[in-house]
Amino acid sequence: xxxxxxxxxxxxxxxxxxxxxxxxxxxxxxxxxxxxxxxxxxxxxxxxxxxxxxxxxxxxxxxxxxxxxxxxxxxxxxxxxxxxxxxxxxxxxxxxxxxxxxxxxxxxxxxxxxxxxxxxxxxxxxxx
Length: 128
Hints:
Number of helices: 0
Oligomer: single chain
């Protein structure tokens, strides 16, 4: 059994634009449980900020909104998400999530299958 709290993740991964804080709680690294088939992260985006537009060639993602309001853009589709909404993002859909609040953090869970690896993270415009 693997039990972890967000506070146990001492140094979150900071997204490429510096506006997204990703706390990998369960994932491939041994210190995160050593999973293969899925990973689990808690994401925090500060007020008025967003993730970088990106896609995955292999990884499926599900976002589950905990707090705040978000604008999720997936390819040419756009939706507003709030607490208790879930969204599925399939490869290779380009996606980006925006915090709509000027005062409150956006917090959500992201479940990836198979477990996330950095080599399956592609910024829009990357040749990879």
